[in-house]
Amino acid sequence: MKIIKNLVGERLSKDELKQVKGGTAPHCNTGKICYRGENDKGELLWDCVPLTTECKDFP
Question: Which of 17, 25, 33, 35 is the most exposed place for a label (fewest CB within 10 A)?
Fold first, then answer.
């Protein structure tokens, strides 16, 4: 729901931003952001990859 609110232009608080799943995704200057899974702490793992690389579906 928080992502949907952001897409329609509502500003999110810092607390709300911290709760957005996937909020740790990197900014990639080239290529695209790719979801890689979770580590043993349950943190999401992301990577910058070429546009032709297939990525896992985000849960």
Answer: 17
